[in-house]
Specification:
Length: 137
């Protein structure tokens, strides 16, 4: 029973290797075991003169597709895209413009407040601790 199972495993392995490789190398070692590989360097040097080479024609070569090219439509009119309510890009740009202005103003106010805070913090530190100079030895 073990012999039948091992023969089935070898046959399945051999068929799997044949399906995966374009070139197969087969050799029989001194104990009568049939070996398969797809890399000639894995064949022991003492068996390289007895290797049978099989080229598989049904295996597809891996081909890397070329990178996609940018498609330009010079003569086609650009379609104006709208949302489900019929508002186009211009409507949304007008809607966002005040928000951008308010964000810019808030950022400027934050930067000014941060600067004022840092100046006040430095001034209070000088009043509390005086002028400290650190010397490193």
């Amino acid at each position: 029973m073990k012999k039948i199972f091992s023969i089935l495993v070898v046959l399945l392995l051999a068929s799997f290797l044949q399906a995966q490789a374009g070139t197969l190398y087969k050799w029989v070692d001194k104990e009568g075991v049939v070996n398969f590989t797809d890399d000639l360097s894995k064949v022991p040097p003492s068996y390289r003169d007895r290797v049978e080479v099989e080229e598989r024609k049904d295996v597809e070569e891996e081909v890397t597709p070329p990178p996609p090219q940018a498609v330009t439509h010079e003569n086609e009119e650009e379609e104006i895209k709208t949302d489900i309510y019929g508002r186009d890009e211009a409507w949304w740009r007008d809607k966002v413009r005040p928000w951008k202005e308010r964000l810019k103003e808030a950022t400027e106010n934050y930067d000014a407040a941060q600067k004022k805070y840092m100046e006040s913090s430095d001034e209070l530190s000088l009043k509390k601790f005086g002028s400290l100079t650190l010397t490193l030895h």
